[in-house]
Amino acid sequence: MFRIVKKRILNTQVKLMEIEAPFIAKKAEPGQFIILRASENGERIPLTIADFDRDKGTVTIVFQEVGNTTKALGKLNEGDMILDFVGPLGTASHFDNVKKTAIIGGGLGTAISYPQAKKLYGMGVEVHSITGFRNKELIILEEELKAVSNKLIVATDDGSNGVKGFVTDILKNLIEEGNKYDLVIAIGPIPMMKAVCNLTKVLGIKTIVSMNPVMIDGTGMCGGCRLTVGGKVKFACIDGPDFDGHEVDFDEAMRRQNMYKDEEKISQKEHKCNLGV
Amino acid sequence: MANMSLNKVKIPEQDPNIRNKNFLEVALGYTKEMAIEEAQRCLNCKHRPCVSGCPVNVKIPDFIRLVAEGKFEEAYEKIRETNSLPAICGRVCPQENQCEKLCVRGKNGEPVGIGRLERFAADWYMQNIKAKTNNTVKNGRKVAVIGSGPSGLSCAGDLAKLGYDVTIFEAFHVPGGVLMYGIPEFRLPKALVQDEIQTVKDLGVKIETNMVIGKVLSLDEIIELGYEAIFIGSGAGLPSFMGIPGETLNGVYSANEFLTRINLMKAYLFPNCDTPVKVGKNVAVVGGGNVAMDAARSARRLGADNVYIVYRRTEAEMPARKEELHHAKEEGIIFKLLANPTQIFGTDAGWVRGMECIEMELGEPDATGRRKPVVKAGSEFVIDVDTVIIAIGQTPNPLIKNATPGLDTTKWGGIIVKEETGETSKKGVYAGGDAVTGAATVILAMGAGKKAAITIDEYLKNK
Ligand SMILES: Cc1cc2nc3c(=O)[nH]c(=O)nc-3n(C[C@H](O)[C@H](O)[C@H](O)COP(=O)(O)OP(=O)(O)OC[C@H]3O[C@@H](n4cnc5c(N)ncnc54)[C@H](O)[C@@H]3O)c2cc1C
Ligand SMILES: Cc1cc2nc3c(=O)[nH]c(=O)nc-3n(C[C@H](O)[C@H](O)[C@H](O)COP(=O)(O)OP(=O)(O)OC[C@H]3O[C@@H](n4cnc5c(N)ncnc54)[C@H](O)[C@@H]3O)c2cc1C
Ligand code: FES
Which residues contact B449 (CB under 8 A, 6 or more apart)? Predict the structure, then answer.
């Protein structure tokens, strides 16, 4: 069992929790994730390690309440226990010879991109963070990102925070203004990552994306998380979740993501009886 | 006087047309009377060929005699002297290739139902006898075991009996390995697996779940935590795919994924349990082993109208237990033999709509002695399916190997050990079970765990 030591509400749908998990905190690296189970009959769901504190022995997760498990998790409070919490899984991000980077977070993707920004900033890389949200109520982690970015642009689709626009347009503007990035990191909904990659491919800028396929074990034993990258089948939980965005087959990934759409709806509607299984 | 009937006492089973819609156990087990009657078929022969056919040398004639005498508790204890998981082995061992194959009664008629009797004794014991307190004297020395499948459990159990302080590190949220995530409820009830695991815990073994070794701790870090030896029983969990076009379509599963959803995550109870599984109306399962049979029979139970086993050789070469083949047929599984998939077709939306296969014929024997299937040119045909489950084998997961410099493995990822001792190339580290041999059997994995326990004990005594 894993204790929740801190809970923060970031917006109406997104919560942050700091979990006591000393073994994981000791080994965690940016780019890695955990898998948790919130209840006895619950699903195993992957969440990115948004931050970690080796001294305190804690790991931070940031999650959006989209379905059963994330909603159940959101109801837990400080002091409550999470049943299962396993990690760190996936391959840590590797950054070599990066001088200047643009890190793009779409919506919740901001939480997933934060540890990468923190790491790169800590390595002395010039970090330009661009985050996009639907409206100003949904903005998350602004202060945290500001602390690890040389430049931060927070945009909203409706302009309600004063900066209107899509992250791709902002990236394009920054490049046109003469910013020379040797790495772009794009994390968010698949259509956003695809759009960024279409742009950076033409410009020849290396781009890393973080893929979120459905997972079960997270250790390479089911193959449910497979993706096509550069024409080869890869397991996101082992080979990723970070991949070269110019090689990923996004259309296929999007189709696979929707495999359980109907069941997810049923799952949320059905009354749950507590079977003793 | 021995019972000279040529046939085994029949074991009560659920009717095929009822059981192919539920996940309850297929074989219901002997009553006391049936068990005694079957036990009386054993001739108690002097040379005991059956014992040498058992990878852990259960004292078969001795326990059977005790069953025949109605001494069920003693019978169970006799089995437990060499086998720590009898309720499981009685259900899933390929007895027809092991003990029962060598049974003298099998020369004329059916062999003694050794597996059924083993199961009976174990079930009787679990229902009737309370856990006994364990009073082994602890020696205070720590040993770590990676993986809680049959190899890890038996190694841990044996070491605990010798007084060691044993901790099992398990990646999943429940212990049991394939016994929990692979073999379905209708063949091996999960409550029973947990009861068997409890008997190992009763010996003092600790089980730490949610610990993916190689990620959260390296082998060297385990040693730094004060463990003096390590046994790796991490199994063969990496699913093989065929590498044919269409394998990433929606509706294509590895058998591991399909069975893990159903068994470990209990998708057959969806939506009362959160994890779903999608089973179409027409399902093709590729492969001919136990894994393929389990996937096919599970698909049938989840409502598929037509379930095909697609296998590139003939029934004679199928590695599945005979009983499972027989049960699968009774449950209406359709066998497409001498056929090999060449591609999977999808709809515009990316869902499976059919699978192309090619006919095969048997050629010359290969290295394993089985006749090698060869393609019949131009014989492609398409089967109409919306789900494809690939059950063509698993290899050891490279996770531990990749995180452990100095641990030698074969080209296909099997950990290299000295066969007699289970020693790996890394000092103080032992391995056994599917992680060494590739996908094999429960009993071989248990045997390897036991052997390593003996070597570990010797190593630590002399250290
Ligand atoms: C490597 C990785 C990192 C992730 N990091 C984060 C994160 O930091 N914060 C966050 O909010 N979300 C993250 N996700 C997505 C998160 O796992 C899903 O939102 C979550 O599983 C939804 O579960 P649910 O029961 O609440 O909703 P459901 O109703 O079950 O599903 C809602 C959506 O989530 C996706 N999903 C469902 N089950 C799984 C599963 N087992 N594995 C992956 N996706 C699934 C499906 O695409 C579905 O459309 C990550 C996913 C991956 C693979
Ligand atoms: C569907 C199916 C049906 C089968 N039917 C039969 C049958 O009828 N009869 C028979 O005899 N055999 C059968 N087998 C084969 C048999 O189950 C295996 O040979 C046996 O379970 C191997 O035991 P093991 O202990 O080596 O590994 P496993 O049972 O695979 O256990 C390995 C354990 O190690 C854990 N692990 C892996 N990596 C790590 C890590 N890095 N850190 C921590 N833990 C880790 C795994 O999660 C797992 O719990 C079947 C197999 C399958 C898949
Ligand atoms: S989640 Fe099972 S292999 Fe990646």
Answer: B150, B151, B152, B153, B154, B155, B156, B158, B231, B233, B432, B433
Q: Rounded to whole angstroms, how far apart are CA atoms B373 and B362?
A: 4
Contact yes or no for B280/B385 (Cβ under 8 A): yes
Q: Is residue A260 part of a domain?
A: no
- Confirm or reject: Cβ of A250 under 6 Å from ligand 3: no
Q: Which atom of ligand 1 is nearest to the CA of A50?
A: 8
Average pLDDT over residues A4-31: 95
Q: Distance between CA B314 and CA A91 in Å, rounded?
A: 42
Cβ contact A223:B256 at 8 Å = yes
CATH number, domain of A196, equals 3.40.50.80
Domain boundary among A89, A106, A139: A89
d(CA A76, CA A220): 30
**pLDDT digits 0-9 by tens, B421-463:** 999 999 999 999 999 999 999 999 999 999 999 999 999 999 8
Contact B180, B157 (CB under 8 A): no
Helix B72-80 with B114-128: angle, nearest 10 deg: 110
Q: Report CB contact under 8 Å: A222, B209.
A: no
A49 or A270: whose pLDDT is higher?
A49
Q: Do B276 and A267 touch (CB under 8 A)?
A: yes
The answer to the question of residue A258 being in a domain is no
Chain B environment of A190 (Cβ under 8 Å): none
Q: Which of A181, A204, A227 is where one domain is finished?
A: A204
Residue B248: list chain A partners with CB under 8 A: 226-228, 233, 252, 256
Residue A31 shares a structural domain with residue A111: no
pLDDT, tens digit, 9 for 90 and up, residues A119-153 = 999 999 999 999 999 999 999 999 999 999 999 99
Hey, are the CB atoms on B216 and A41 less than 8 Å from each other? no
Regarding pTM above 0.90, the answer is: yes
Q: What is the CA radius of gyration of chain A?
A: 18
Tokens of B251: 């509706």
Residue A116 belongs to a domain: yes
**Is the distance from CB of A141 to CB of A224 less than 8 angstroms?**
no
Q: How far is the CA of B256 from the centre of ligand 3 (A)?
A: 10
Give B258→chain A minimum CA distance, Å: 8
Complex prediction ipTM:
0.90
Same domain, A99 and A46: no
- What CATH number did the domain enclosing A215 receive? 2.10.240
CA distance B41 to B55: 23
- The whole domain housing A22 covers 2-89
Q: What tokens were used for B190?
A: 């999960």
Q: Are A120 and A18 found together in one domain?
A: no
